[in-house]
């Protein structure tokens, strides 16, 4: 009988302790509820193993996202954060992407208690602003190079899995520098913005248009039917520039050059696809502006040849390998010499006299000032007239003895 009484007393004490604990938990919950119900940000309370004890109205979006209710346990991943909060001396911070929104969560353990408070803050606008700064061009609002490359990786991955084609169009505005210098940077910016709009109007929603920097743009064409489909889009992009841009009350006409690569033929990864498109663009600008060029393998060999010639030219200028030949101009009627043409010839140490058709196009890619200064060092002490002209007859340099000819022709020389 005594033993039975002891058991009943013990059970009664346990029941009272349990009731007291529940009352205490209820008071805690009611306490946080009074504080949190009017809070516009999510607030929750969970126990140390992740069961939700309380959630205010703004926190319901997170419960719905997790598919749980008050009384249920958080997903395992977030229970681990709860454990970290209990054990850590400082609050645990994390971000939660939730139903198209982003929340910053702070998990804070309460001293001498068996629960953790979770405070949320909606940072969706902040994340969107960060994304805009990191991934988009400030002037045009288009994706920047980083986002362009990321999307290109995705498009090429999809094309590889499905066996479809993908194309990259690299677009460079022709003589954009002239517009900046003659009309001002504001006019140049307006042209870039206007061109961006026309590019977007020319492509499909599934394609990507990006500003890669300066006056260079890129288009990722998703799943063209064939090369003809790529050509059609390239021509459409060029045609978008036929109408003038209204800038500062003036009609400004512009043109562009396009370099094109097609996956998988012209590269197996984004780096090679972009590099080859850039090479095709360079060829397009040097051969015929206002047009588009597809990449071909021969371009790699040509660019290596150009680089070799450029390196040899620099050495040749230092070594005096360039020679000026003077070709008289004869007036047939009077049978008198009325002038002369100065022709540059290159006596290469290994190849002999090289054809101007080989080295003149390369020379035109070297800065005029650098070329002029190089020949000036060789020619200034020459007692005979020495001039340098480009392929369309503009005088780039003339030494002192040659000035008499310039005066005779009535021309000046840019210095």
Radius of gyration: 37 Å
> Strands of the largest sheet, in order across it?
2-1-5-4-3
Overall pLDDT = 81
Total beta-strand segments: 17
Major sheet size, sense and barrel closure: 5 strands, antiparallel
Q: Helical residue percent?
A: 40-55%
Strand content: 25-35%
Unreliable stretches, pLDDT < 50, 5 or more residues? 411-415
Quickly give the structural class: alpha+beta
Q: How many helices? A: 13
Task: Report a brief summary of the structure.
The protein is an alpha+beta fold and 415 residues long. It is 46% helix and 25% strand. 25% of the residues are buried.
Question: Explain this structure to me?
Answer:
With 415 residues, the protein is α+β, with helices and mostly antiparallel strands. The chain is 46% helix and 25% strand. It is built from 13 helices and 17 strands. It has helices at 2-36, 60-66, 76-87, 124-135, 145-162, 176-183, 185-202, 227-239, 270-287, 298-319, 356-363, 368-379, 403-409, and strands at residues 43-47, 52-55, 92-98, 101-109, 115-122, 166-173, 208-213, 216-222, 245-247, 250-252, 256-263, 292-294, 322-331, 336-348, 352-354, 387-389, 395-398. α6 crosses α7 (185-202) and α10 (298-319) packs across α11.
Summarize the helices and strands and which ones pair or pack.
Layout: H1 2-36, E1 43-47, E2 52-55, H2 60-66, H3 76-87, E3 92-98, E4 101-109, E5 115-122, H4 124-135, H5 145-162, E6 166-173, H6 176-183, H7 185-202, E7 208-213, E8 216-222, H8 227-239, E9 245-247, E10 250-252, E11 256-263, H9 270-287, E12 292-294, H10 298-319, E13 322-331, E14 336-348, E15 352-354, H11 356-363, H12 368-379, E16 387-389, E17 395-398, H13 403-409
Parallel strand pairs: 11-12
Antiparallel strand pairs: 1-2, 1-5, 3-4, 4-5, 6-8, 6-11, 7-8, 9-10, 13-14, 14-15, 16-17
